[in-house]
Write a structure and sequence with these properties.
The chain is an all-alpha fold. The protein is 65% helix and 0% strand. It has 27 helices and no strands. The chain has helices at residues 5-17, 21-38, 42-49, 52-56, 59-70, 80-92, 98-114, 121-134, 141-158, 162-176, 184-198, 202-208, 229-242, 245-253, 265-279, 282-295, 305-321, 324-330, 339-351, 355-361, 377-389, 395-409, 420-427, 450-461, 465-472, 476-490, 495-501. The protein is elongated, with a radius of gyration of 28 Å.
Length: 505
């Protein structure tokens, strides 16, 4: 028999028709994942046909049947008693097969995630990795390991270990390339692309995603469906990186009813929040995100990337409204390190007028004092804005580095952190972007002096610099000097923009 899915399925159906249950055992053990992902309608029918007495005498197949029976969504796991029975059988053997010990721990990992017990996840991940390294019998591993490494990757993602997640998804792709073609390869590719987007590298993400990324190919309730949530996110991330409002709105509109019950619900919430931040209503989005965090509190505990990203989004939405008190509150909880959260905290310090504290949060300086080549473009753009506020000569250097990072990684969101001069440098570096949204945050990093506020307020009343100088008993050159400083601090070029940014219009 060849290893093509159609021929395997024909052989499976022949054995079922003949009620040759023992003859089906080798096929379940070699193709339970391959067929489950390629033809998700097959195994549920087959396992439903097995006599109950036969399944009770074959614990491995009984557990496979429980897995397929439970699949209705990403968090679905077999009944606890079925898992306990499988565990008793595996642990009762003197020399259990690695495929059984690994599958048992992978199932335990699913339960840990289902219950929100993320503190227990690292120990389970470590056991799976140890069992894989120590495996001395590889029967069946090429079939199950891709579907083991994908949830390992998503778990590492939840815990804030983005690099570890990338490695796990890459390992899932590697295992998918061993033996007959494995449909998990495309799913692992989409998860890898998702992790790369979350690491800020949309160019590399686009190079690894599956050709069919952007849609689901199987109905809800099927085994393959639960792996396809990542696919739906990829066009939205790509549109966000391009600052393509219509593309992002269209991609979000393509999220199906299952996405909010998927393990990646928080990624969908993040994408919706960014759309509202740049093109929508930050106040409405902030309220919805607050409710979502309350509703999903068990699945988004502190010190996870889930809560870290969504609280950074929440703070950004409040920053866009000028509600800095609530923006600060959103960052009070313990979090994991992620570029988005670091950026949000640094920008908040800038908006609060503490440029030195903001600068200290952004590790963009190489040992030689030059901009760090691996720093995210958004960090470099914000650093340029901070330096420009402080009249630092390094501002243009960091702006040029930001433009280079945007070119390299293709993420135009850096523009949203840029002051006008840096924005010009990024756009003028050969990157084409039409209808760019305005910077959503009030120009921060400034505290206008009493004299600067007085000059700007007088400018609101008087039509000319000369009239303003006369009203304040200052020289024209002194007023011009104050205005240059005010314009630089506010990141504007005209009187009208300065008055609007300072809330004096």
């Amino acid at each position: 028999m060849k290893d093509s899915p159609d021929e395997i399925v024909r052989e499976i159906r022949r054995l079922v028709d003949a009620q040759d249950w023992d003859g089906l055992v080798p096929l379940t053990e070699k193709y339970v994942q391959r067929v489950g992902l390629a033809r998700p309608d097959v195994w549920p029918e087959v396992f439903a046909a097995f006599p109950r007495e036969w399944l009770l005498a074959h614990p491995r197949q009984r557990y496979f049947a429980a897995v397929y029976q439970a699949v209705t969504g990403r968090y679905s796991v077999p009944d606890g008693e079925e898992l306990a029975e499988y565990a008793r059988w595996v642990e009762s053997q003197e020399h259990p097969l690695p495929r059984d010990t690994i599958l048992l721990e992978a199932s335990r990992l699913q339960y840990v995630r289902l219950l929100g017990l993320f503190d227990e996840a690292p120990a389970v991940l470590e056991r799976i990795e140890r069992l894989t390294v120590e495996a001395d019998d590889y029967r069946g591993l090429d079939d199950i390991m891709p579907s083991v490494y994908i949830p390992m990757g998503t778990t590492r993602l939840f815990l804030g270990d983005v690099r570890g997640a990338i490695s796990a998804f890459a390992e899932a792709r590697r295992w998918s390339s061993i033996g007959p073609p494995h449909p998990a390869y495309d799913h692992a590719s989409n998860y890898l692309a998702l992790a790369l987007h979350l690491s800020g590298d949309p160019v590399l993400a686009a190079s690894v995603q599956a050709p069919w990324a952007g849609r689901r190919r199987h109905p809800m309730g099927s085994y393959a469906y639960v792996y396809e949530g990542a696919s739906l996110m990829l066009p939205a991330f790509a549109a966000l990186a391009r600052l393509d409002a219509e593309g992002l709105e269209r991609a979000i509109g393509g999220f199906d009813a299952g996405i909010d019950d998927d393990e990646l619900w928080w990624v969908a919430a993040h994408l919706r929040a960014r759309h509202a931040l740049y093109w929508g209503d930050p106040a409405v989005a902030a309220e919805r995100l607050e409710h979502l965090l309350d509703e999903k509190a068990v699945m988004a505990p502190p010190r996870t990337l889930i809560r870290t990203v969504l609280l950074a989004d929440l703070s950004d939405l409040y920053q866009a409204q000028g509600d800095l008190h609530r923006a600060v509150d959103a960052h009070r909880e313990p979090s994991v390190e992620h570029p988005l959260a670091v950026l949000s905290r640094a920008r908040l310090q800038m908006l609060l007028g503490d440029a030195p504290a903001a600068r200290a949060l952004l590790p963009v300086d190489a040992p030689d004092g030059l901009p760090r080549a691996t720093a995210p473009g958004s960090w470099l753009a914000l650093r340029a804005a901070l330096d420009r506020v402080s009249d630092d000569d390094d501002a243009d250097r960091f702006a040029v580095a930001a433009a280079a990072a945007v070119r390299r990684r293709g993420d135009l969101q850096a523009i949203m952190e840029a002051d006008p001069r840096t924005r010009e440098l990024i756009i003028g570096s050969g990157i084409v972007a039409k209808d760019l949204p305005d910077r959503p945050y009030a120009a921060g990093g400034f505290r206008l002096t009493d004299r600067e506020i007085e000059v700007l307020s007088a400018l609101r009343v008087h039509e000319s610099v000369k009239a303003t100088a006369e009203a304040l008993f200052l020289s024209v050159n002194t007023v011009k000097s104050h205005l240059r400083t005010v314009y630089r601090k506010l990141g504007v070029r005209t009187r009208e923009e300065a008055l609007r940014r300072a809330g004096l219009q």
